[in-house]
């Protein structure tokens, strides 16, 4: 996945800029334990012109400067959902993690999430499927 595609995914309202709220939502999906202070510090580093938003150029340059590897970040997020460390995520894993984050989803909704990216129909999400799911 390209940095531009990641930017577009984080820019939820598609205004060409990432707000602190959009940034925080994306980062919390990858790191459940990140503090508000850490988020704000990271945001300030990326917001190079200090206008309170991150544009595409700042995002690309910031990621290059910080040497952030999207694949590594996604793998860390995947591992936080892979409750038993077997390399795949079940609907119950997703249900548990999302509800722990305060996002109330039914088990049925989590099953639908799995089914949406479960191309081989095994009922689980492996890392490749997870990357697809996170970028939707």
UniProtKB/TrEMBL annotation:
<dbReference type="InterPro" id="IPR039647">
    <property type="entry name" value="EF_hand_pair_protein_CML-like"/>
</dbReference>
<dbReference type="InterPro" id="IPR018247">
    <property type="entry name" value="EF_Hand_1_Ca_BS"/>
</dbReference>
<keyword id="KW-0106">Calcium</keyword>
<feature type="domain" description="EF-hand">
    <location>
        <begin position="71"/>
        <end position="104"/>
    </location>
</feature>
<dbReference type="InterPro" id="IPR002048">
    <property type="entry name" value="EF_hand_dom"/>
</dbReference>
<keyword id="KW-0479">Metal-binding</keyword>
<keyword id="KW-0677">Repeat</keyword>
<feature type="domain" description="EF-hand">
    <location>
        <begin position="105"/>
        <end position="136"/>
    </location>
</feature>
<dbReference type="Pfam" id="PF13499">
    <property type="entry name" value="EF-hand_7"/>
</dbReference>
<protein>
    <submittedName>
        <fullName>Probable calcium-binding protein CML32</fullName>
    </submittedName>
</protein>
<feature type="domain" description="EF-hand">
    <location>
        <begin position="1"/>
        <end position="33"/>
    </location>
</feature>
<feature type="domain" description="EF-hand">
    <location>
        <begin position="34"/>
        <end position="69"/>
    </location>
</feature>
<dbReference type="InterPro" id="IPR011992">
    <property type="entry name" value="EF-hand-dom_pair"/>
</dbReference>
């Amino acid at each position: 996945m390209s940095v531009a595609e990641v930017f577009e995914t984080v820019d939820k309202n598609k205004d060409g800029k990432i707000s602190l709220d959009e940034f925080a939502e994306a980062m919390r999906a990858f790191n459940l334990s990140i503090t508000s202070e850490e988020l704000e510090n990271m945001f300030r580093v990326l917001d190079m012109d200090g206008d309170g938003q991150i544009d595409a150029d700042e995002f690309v340059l910031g990621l290059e400067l910080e040497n952030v590897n999207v694949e590594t970040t996604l793998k860390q997020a995947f591992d936080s959902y892979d409750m038993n460390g077997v390399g795949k995520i079940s609907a119950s894993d997703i249900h548990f993690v999302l509800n722990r984050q305060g996002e109330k989803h039914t088990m049925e909704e989590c099953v639908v999430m799995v089914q949406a990216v479960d191309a081989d129909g095994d009922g689980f999400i492996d890392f490749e499927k997870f990357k697809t799911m996170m970028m939707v």
